[in-house]
Design a protein that fits this description.
This protein is an alpha+beta fold and about 425 residues long. The chain has 13 helices and 13 strands. It folds into two domains: about 200 residues, no CATH class; about 200 residues, no CATH class. Helix 11 runs antiparallel to helix 12.
């Protein structure tokens, strides 16, 4: 039998009961929409959210700080880390670099004029080794010590601070939301030795320090730090306002030579009464949580697909029962089993391809709509800069069409083999 003749029979057979065929197509199409949407969600989470997390949490960098003590409902911070302890860690062969973090040991507040409104607030300021956040500085800007007192102090702000402004302060006060570009280069004043809280006290001679934001950091280890200044400024300010002669650190950011060296470094920190905050563990926990969500989505999509393809099996079972006479007649005039099987598989494949195309088109429209809604409704956040949750492209659409086609053909293949294996005389008596 020629290919054109087979296609003629396939089209003719599908048109015999258009209602049943359309119902089967819609069932598979809806199932494919949910399945492809789940796949695009998984692709978006793995290649955007998790990738973003891993980029912001390098496995070779860990943060160490002193263990705290809980007494009743009060948590007492441990003593600061000494320079000798930092040097001891740096001397370890497993450690490539140690970046110390210096806390400000006196009251400090910030003054900023934003859209004509003066904002005054106490603020958390820490000094950090310039090399640790140098990459966060915008092109053309430098995060480094400058001995010239006329130059503003370079500041790297936490991306979370911008998120908090956009999500909270701007929404509550009707202010425009800020993009990272709008923040870079903005200047403000730090009032050294003075707080907005009277009980915090004040220095005998507070003074202003002009600052300029040169970059934003999304480093999770620095999320609790509102702003960062070079360590040299922090040491000088502590010496001036708190009479701290020898710098001490509230955290050490340690760069390992290899991730496998982590247990040795952790053991050394335990001897010095310090605890380790490993980013790898945080990424793994977040990844595990996201994977659970994806598994639930896939189980739900799998159940929908099972019902949809079960409907296809039921549809073709009825079709084969109704067309036993035609199968027997074709066998009687010399058609082989392979020819008849190819006709029915062609019907199932055409139905699957059409259903897959419908599902892919609807899933693409759904992904576009969800992404557009997220883009317009969600404010920019550091975890998901482009806010595209569903990653749907033409490879996924082609996969959906091919998957639907193959599964429909595979579902009808055993039934077709069973019917074509019967004797022509038996099939001819089924009219």
């Amino acid at each position: 039998m020629r290919i054109a003749q087979r296609f003629y029979l396939i089209r003719k057979n599908l048109r015999q009961n258009p209602g049943r065929t359309l119902f089967a197509c819609l069932g598979v199409g809806i199932g494919m929409v949910i399945f492809l949407a789940s796949l695009s969600l998984a692709w978006g989470v793995r290649n955007r959210v998790l990738k973003r997390l891993r980029e912001s949490m390098p496995e070779r960098i860990v943060t160490a700080n002193r263990k705290s003590v809980d007494i009743m409902q009060i948590r007492l911070a441990g003593e600061l880390i000494s320079q000798a302890e930092a040097a001891r860690l740096l001397a370890m062969p497993e450690v490539e670099e140690v970046y110390p973090q210096i806390p400000i040991a006196f009251p400090i507040r910030a003054e900023l004029t934003l859209f004509g409104v003066e904002i005054v607030s106490d603020i958390v300021v820490n000094g950090i080794a310039s090399q640790y956040v140098a990459a966060a500085a915008a092109p053309g800007a430098r995060f480094a010590w400058n001995p010239d007192p006329a130059k503003p102090v370079p500041v790297v702000a936490s991306q979370v601070l911008l998120d908090m402004y956009n999500l909270g302060y701007a929404e509550a006060n009707g202010f425009p939301k800020l993009s990272p570009k709008a923040v870079i280069g903005r200047e403000f004043d730090l009032i050294l030795g003075e707080s907005t809280i009277p009980a915090m006290g004040a220095s005998a001679a507070p003074r202003r320090a002009r600052c300029v934001i040169v970059g934003l950091t999304d480093d999770p280890a620095l999320m609790g730090m509102a702003i960062l200044i070079p360590a040299e400024y922090a040491s000088a300010y502590n010496q001036e306002f708190a009479a701290v002669r020898t710098p001490a650190y509230n955290a050490l950011h340690i760069k390992l030579r290899d991730v496998s060296d982590l247990p040795k470094v952790e053991a050394a920190l335990a001897e010095m009464n310090m605890k380790l905050d490993s980013r790898r563990e945080l990424v793994e926990r977040l990844g595990f949580f996201l994977n659970i969500i994806l598994v639930v989505a896939f189980v739900f999509a799998g159940l929908i697909l099972f019902v949809a393809f079960g409907n296809v099996v039921n549809t073709f079972s009825l079709i084969l029962l109704q067309r036993r006479y035609e199968i027997g007649l074709l066998r009687a005039v010399g058609a082989t089993r392979a020819t008849i099987v190819s006709i029915f598989l062609g019907e199932a494949g055409l139905l699957g391809a059409f259903s897959g195309a419908i599902g892919a088109a609807l899933a693409c429209a759904l992904a576009w709509g969800v992404n557009a809604l997220c883009q317009s409704a969600l404010p920019p956040i550091s975890l998901l800069p482009d806010r595209h949750i569903l990653a749907f492209g033409w490879p996924l659409a082609l996969f959906g069409v091919a998957f639907s086609t193959l599964v429909c053909m595979a579902a009808t293949f055993p039934m077709t083999l069973r019917e074509t294996a019967r004797r022509p005389a038996f099939l001819l008596r089924q009219q």
